[in-house]
């Protein structure tokens, strides 16, 4: 057991804290920006994130977010490939309206695993809102304390690779962008088709909250019991994502 744990840590730890792109370590999440505005008496929040996904390219698209109870539009998700080879993902959502929804879908990712522990959600209720059968957005907290925003974007191109891995796994890295903003980006995987993708999460602490925002260290405890063969398959998955071949698209 100790030997397997040592091998697992030696293989998975570099994967968990970064993507290995042909010998170079590259974090998925390269930049985030969170803003808030008041529109029609409702608080709206926006998240813009820049991602480094190697050979995986996100096509340009815009997905509307609807209130699952009423069908009323309450925001959008956008994503596209940028000229420098990175990808941009954006979320704009009516925080006031979203905060009134059922939080049950906000406790897990599409692969049924918990949200990244490094996000530090604690007892905060997170609302999960489906935007398709494979993707959802997350929102929780408040503008006066900790605000949580997230996107789980299903990537069909991963299904053929992760289908050979018999476990659902989360591989995320926390990246502090400022004293108030913590980003968490990475992959969630499953052997079930439609439950694989990339996750982008942000915690923004209001300046008035006046509390420390030291990011948690990414833990491999989620995957301690993965055997060596599975770890090697994950290593191959990272190479598939990040080592340039031809441009793969979602």
Describe the fold and architecture.
The chain has 250 residues and is of the alpha+beta class. It has one domain (2-244). It contains four helices and 15 strands. The strands form four sheets. The chain has a six-stranded antiparallel sheet with strand order 9-10-11-14-13-12. A hairpin with a 6-residue loop joins strand 6 and strand 7 (73-81). Helix 1 (2-17) runs parallel beside helix 4 (228-242). The protein is globular. Mean pLDDT is 77; it is low at 1-25, 213-228 and 242-250.
Key phrases:
disordered N terminus; single chain; alpha+beta; globular; 6-stranded antiparallel beta sheet; 250 residues; 5-stranded antiparallel beta sheet
Shape: globular
Strand order of the largest sheet: 9-10-11-14-13-12
Mean pLDDT: 77
Oligomer: single chain
Number of strands: 15
Radius of gyration: 18 Å
Quickly count the domains: 1
What's the quick description here?
With 250 residues, the protein is of the alpha+beta class. It is 16% helix and 40% strand. The longest helix is centred in the N-terminal third of the chain and has 16 residues, at 2-17.
